[in-house]
Design goal:
single chain; alpha/beta; 7-stranded mixed beta sheet; 18 helices
Length: 830
């Protein structure tokens, strides 16, 4: 808990927002933006996942060099683990996407993605590019280069060393190297040229470090003749922080990965190995030989002269004095022949003009959620806090509606407001991450709109554009319509305006296990997206499953109100799997969506719409009646799955562990990474081992080898490694086929390892004491057998089990064999 609080504090200190407050730059911020306005050079950093990026380098390039700096993460991190909650797969990807967006707000970079899906750990790029659609991902990298137009590309990883790191890592560098050559070829991915132009970056680097050499000593001795050495340990007076302190705050926004970072100060170097392109004469100046002034544009001289004057004469106590020259520069920028720089620098200078004038323009809805076809009230606010003579000519909305607010003179510091009603079309799109709207594959998201590819965030179209004029020049300022309210603790809270279905529903459990032929209750929660909802709800099931009642009436008076409906589901006699679908019908329209809100304080509130479905499994499984004490680790849904199996499960707080408390339990189970994140286990381990010694069972799920809270997590020596089996269908061999765990109460066979998701297991022990018995062996193709997936040892009268098998993924996914094997682990000592 302390770790999560510190990570949250880091992000809040750097970016004090609850939700999405408007930017309110101070004079130092404005001057920094002017410096960046006068730099015409772009850098694109490329890697595979959220948290792969070097925030120190991104911050340095953005804040010291003043380059426009982008980070292209090929995936959204969907295949990782989650330290702050139970969300996995695409829901985790949504969280990690937002964490990257928040990180870029701090370090000054911009965020981009490809359509690649993080399908989990991959040991080599060959496997990665077989699961990803290589051509599509390569197309996305080329698209990013053509649309961002980097002069310089920097790879986080080495394209020449497959097999030495995550396959996604190496693949990202390989694709970057290939795209470097293809982006300027008109015959490559020619369909893109309807929207952009070919582009040739000048040079590409590999951001190396001692880590890639194995040790600092080896790196010191390495040939660095082709490496740029950048002194990135600078101090920024405008921010009151060192570059490393800014980078640490950025890094600390990766809370779901547990990457809280402490900032440092003083000199520090980064190394970049030149790979391809035109080498700079001064190898330590990445932009050497590249014109990064306005002179790189044939019609940029006049703009350059004006902005040089603005920068030289900037008045920190009166930024508004710069506005007249900024308006002249804005007009000249509109006349630039190059549409890329015209569009880019127009947006930059508009922000500066608004900041210098103290312009505050806002559009606020009276509700946070609404439905297609509904009408919301929107309040507009406009204020000019400078001596400059601004006029609000008109406003335009999307969706379009008439707003009678024209020719308003914005007098210095006089706040103007008005309200209007906005009616949404009946076919208006629901709010959702655009890349989740279509069914994807294991390796790829489906995005059919070319102009959406690469965009980081949810596309919210509901907006207002304020057309303001000054000195005879009209400038449009667009603002998204948002929702805000006052919280007694947090104060002003901003949230997005979400467009939701009129009705959504959620099946309470995502997997229903039927170990016997008995019927079970299935609970469905219906939520109203509008007032006075009236309709019906039913549970659709295959014909060999029976559900009662067939349909129930729904009546909800208030928007946001929920009601629970209970159905009885009866399985067939034989083993079977079924998808059960909740369907709500309102005014002859059916709604099959489950609305999932993701609301963590360090990121912007997110809404995901998924199918309101669950899995029902009639299992050939035998269980006993053990009572289980579960100690949560980094967050998983295993306790719910154990309850589904019919066990009595109690989630216990580690600080409350005592011999007396544990006396009533048969089994203690620790959640994933518990010995990495639960500090109290360091003081409670003897209590747990005494529990085993007394004749009970302890099951420890996987931990990583870093930062263990205690070295005494097992009764006998055990060394965790990075060994894993990533091929979920890899052959499993039984080392002790007659062992009780493989035979009681269920006979475990190879069939129980079919249909596993993402991986078989991870962080297997590589060395263990002779007291342990290894039960199974498996390996990825071309590798040696790995026998550490499931280890069992007697301890006193009881049984200790350590397993790296990915039960935390398989049980929530409803993998039958995982349930059968788990039942046997629980009954290891009966």
């Amino acid at each position: 808990m302390r770790q999560s609080f510190l990570l949250l504090a880091a992000c809040i200190v750097a970016l004090p927002t609850w939700g999405q407050r408007p930017e309110k730059p101070n004079a130092a911020d404005i001057y920094h933006q002017i410096e960046k306005l006068n730099f015409l050079g772009n850098v694109l950093y490329i890697a595979a996942h959220p948290d792969d990026e070097n925030t120190r380098l991104i911050s340095f390039l953005s804040n010291e060099v003043h380059a426009r700096t982008g980070y292209l993460s090929l995936t959204r991190g969907d295949g990782g683990q989650n330290l702050i909650g139970p969300e996995l797969r695409e829901l985790l990807g949504v969280i990690r996407t937002q964490e990257l967006i928040e990180a870029r707000k701090i370090d000054g970079g911009e965020q981009f993605f490809s359509r690649a899906n993080d399908f989990g750990f991959s040991k080599n790029p060959t496997e990665t590019l077989q699961i990803w659609d290589k051509n599509q991902v390569l197309s996305d990298v080329v698209w990013a280069i053509r649309t961002f137009r980097p002069d310089i590309i920097i790879n986080r990883f080495d394209h020449r060393s497959p097999g030495t790191t995550h396959g996604h890592h190496t693949a990202s560098a390989m694709l970057s190297m290939e795209a470097f050559d293809l982006a300027n070829q008109p015959n490559q991915f020619a369909d893109q040229l309807a929207y952009t132009q070919p582009w040739q970056p000048q040079r590409i680097y590999f951001n190396t470090s001692w880590w890639f050499y194995g040790s600092k000593e080896k790196f010191e001795k390495a040939d660095k003749s082709k490496q740029a050495q950048l002194q990135i340990g600078v101090y920024y007076p405008f921010a009151g922080k060192s570059n490393q302190e800014i980078a640490a705050l950025s890094r600390s926004c990766h809370q779901s990965q547990g990457f809280g970072n402490t900032g440092t100060r003083g000199e520090e170097d980064e190394y970049l190995e030149f790979l391809k392109g035109t080498a700079p004469a001064n190898k330590n100046n990445l932009f050497d030989g590249i014109d990064t002034t306005w002179n790189r544009l044939a019609d940029g001289k006049a703009v350059s002269e004006l902005l040089a004057k603005v920068q030289k004469e900037f008045n920190y106590t009166n930024p508004g004095a710069s506005v007249p020259d900024l308006i002249k520069a804005y007009s000249l920028i509109q006349q630039l022949q190059d549409p890329f720089w015209r569009n880019q620098k127009s947006e930059e200078i508009k922000k500066i003009i608004a900041a210098c004038s103290g312009l505050y323009l806002e559009a606020v809805s009276d509700v946070q959620e609404t439905t297609p076809g509904s009408t919301i009230k929107v309040k507009l606010e406009a204020i000019n806090r400078s001596a400059n003579a601004w006029t609000l000519n008109r406003v335009e909305t999307y969706p379009k509606t008439a707003v009678n607010w024209n020719n308003q003179v914005l007098t210095n510091n006089k706040d103007l407001t008005t309200s209007f009603d906005l009616t949404l079309p009946t076919d208006y799109d629901y709010t959702a991450p655009y890349y989740l709207k279509e069914e994807g594959s294991v390796g790829m998201y489906t995005v059919n709109d070319r102009l959406l590819i690469g965009k980081p965030d949810v596309q919210r179209a509901t907006q207002v554009t304020f057309f303001l004029s000054i000195q005879g020049v009209e400038i449009p300022f667009t603002r998204k319509i948002v929702y805000k309210y006052n919280d007694d603790v947090k104060g002003e809270v901003y949230q997005p305006l979400d467009i939701v279905p009129a009705a959504t529903s959620s099946i309470k459990e995502k997997v229903y296990i039927f170990p016997k032929n008995r019927s079970r209750e299935v609970r469905v929660i219906v939520k109203a997206g509008k007032e006075n909802l009236s309709g019906s709800v039913q549970l659709q099931v295959p014909s060999d499953w029976k559900v009662s009642p067939e349909q129930q009436t729904v009546t909800l008076q208030r928007k946001g109100e929920t009601a629970e409906f209970v159905f009885t589901l009866t399985p067939p006699k034989e083993a079977a799997e079924a998808v059960i679908q909740s369907v709500v019908t309102v005014d002859n329209q059916t709604f099959k969506q489950d609305k999932i809100d993701i609301n963590y304080p360090h990121i912007y509130k997110q809404m995901v719409l998924k199918s309101a479905a669950a899995k029902a499994i009639k299992l050939n499984i035998k269980t006993n009646e053990e009572k289980i004490a579960y100690i949560m680790g980094a967050g998983d849904e295993v306790p719910n799955s154990l309850t589904q199996m019919g066990y009595e499960v109690t989630v216990v707080k580690p600080e409350s562990l005592t011999p007396e408390l544990l006396q009533s339990f048969d089994v203690v189970m620790t959640g994933i990474r518990a010995y990495n994140v639960v500090n109290q286990l360091a003081y409670k381990q003897q209590v747990l081992l005494d529990f085993v010694k007394s004749g009970k069972t302890m099951i420890v799920q996987y931990n990583t080898l870093d930062d263990m809270v205690t070295k005494e997590y097992a009764p006998y020596p055990l060394k965790i490694s990075r060994d894993r089996v990533t091929e979920e269908n890899a052959e499993v061999r039984f080392l002790q086929p007659n062992h009780r765990i493989l035979n009681y109460p269920n006979k475990i066979t190879s069939a129980d390892f079919t249909g596993w998701k993402q991986e078989q297991g991870l962080y297997y022990p590589s060395e263990w004491d002779a007291q342990y018995t290894a039960l199974i062996s498996a390996n990825d193709q071309g590798e040696k057998p790995k026998d550490g997936a499931l280890l069992v040892a007697p301890y006193g009268k009881g049984t200790y089990i350590y397993t790296g098998l990915s039960f935390f993924r398989e049980l929530p996914e409803g993998v039958p064999g995982a349930f059968r094997l788990m039942a046997n682990l629980i009954s290891a000592k009966n």
